[in-house]
Amino acid sequence: MKKLRGKAPKPKKYVSVMLVPHDSNNIKTWKISNLGTKFFSLIAFFMLVLLILSGCLALVIKENRKIREEQALLHDFFIEQQDYVMQNITTIEEVRDLDNISKEKLYEFSLQVQDITRNYIEKEMKTLSISRSSALTDPSISFVGKIAELKAVLNYLNDANNKEDELFAELSKTREELENYLDHLPTLWPTEGIIESGFGRRLHPVYRWYHDHTGVDIGGKSGNPIYATASGTVIFAGKNGGYGNCVDISHGNGLVTRYAHCSKILVKKWQTVKVGQEIAKVGQTGTATGPHLHFEILLNNNPINPTIFIGTKP
């Protein structure tokens, strides 16, 4: 008798999942077919993708909230500064109509100050898109140029220093107040070098995780001088964790500048410093992979992009 020949059906393959209690009794076993395994794997994959997308969305929402808060902060600051400058413009307008040899200069000065003030506040606030991940590489986005122009306009009043009458005394006082205001805005480049790491989200060079870089890193040689970007008062000078040797200077109006990783500190706490004064030396103290200056600007204790004030290059 001939045996029937044919292909035997392939046994079904399963994945077994066992639940074993501590006492080894009542062991439960579930068999899941390959099809079921693939199905559950697909569900797990989509859940993982959904989880990742949810995390990204949460991060974007958090970043947008930070951006809105920073924009509001800068808006309030610029409005306060505008009010101060406009008060001085009012003083100039009160005296410009008087009969004196510099009437034309005063008129020109007043118009230019008004134009500069309105431009560097109103125009920049419309075009400025503050972002912690943005380096603001376009110099036009910064009002550094406007500040420099305002300083140039102030030179029109140099001749007033030699006048003794009440008119020029008042005008000279106004000029001094404006110069003092400008001296306390951190617009000076703090050290020789260029920006090697910008403001915003980045991969930490030491710990290799993503974080918010709260300032800019300006490369330089160890021992290079570090200068105060504006006049103010030293509120901290010493070691500060990962910042290493660090100097914090308060400039009024809620503005503070921070200079970190210094090799040497040349100032003391509560010391008054002038814009351009050497305050420290470039170094590699704290958490740093090489000699550089980590420079921050804080507005009401919130870090803002320093390039808004100092520009993107010396």
Lay out the secondary structure.
Blueprint: E1 14-19, E2 28-33, H1 34-96, H2 103-127, H3 144-154, H4 166-183, E3 195-197, E4 200-203, E5 210-213, E6 216-219, E7 225-227, E8 232-239, E9 245-252, E10 255-262, E11 264-265, E12 272-273, E13 278-281, E14 292-299, E15 302-304, H5 307-310
Antiparallel strand pairs: 1-2, 3-6, 4-5, 6-14, 7-13, 8-9, 8-12, 9-10, 10-14, 11-13, 14-15
Helix pairs in contact: 1-2, 1-4, 2-3
- Which structural class fits the helix and strand makeup? alpha+beta
Order of helices and strands: EEHHHHEEEEEEEEEEEEEH
Rounded to an integer in angstroms, the radius of gyration calculated over CA atoms is: 32 Å
Shape: elongated
Major sheet size, sense and barrel closure:
8 strands, antiparallel
The count of domains is: 2
What does this structure look like?
This protein is of the alpha+beta class and 314 residues long. The chain has two domains: 68-183; 195-310, Glucose Permease (Domain IIA) (Distorted Sandwich). It contains five helices and 15 strands. It has helices at 34-96, 103-127, 144-154, 166-183, 307-310; strands at 14-19, 28-33, 195-197, 200-203, 210-213, 216-219, 225-227, 232-239, 245-252, 255-262, 264-265, 272-273, 278-281, 292-299, 302-304. Strands 3, 6, 8, 9, 10, 12, 14 and 15 form an eight-stranded antiparallel sheet that branches. Strands 7-13-11 form a three-stranded antiparallel sheet, with no helix packed on it. The protein has a two-stranded antiparallel sheet with strand order 1-2. It is elongated and about 100 Å long. The N and C termini lie far apart (101 Å). Mean pLDDT is 74; it is low at 123-142.
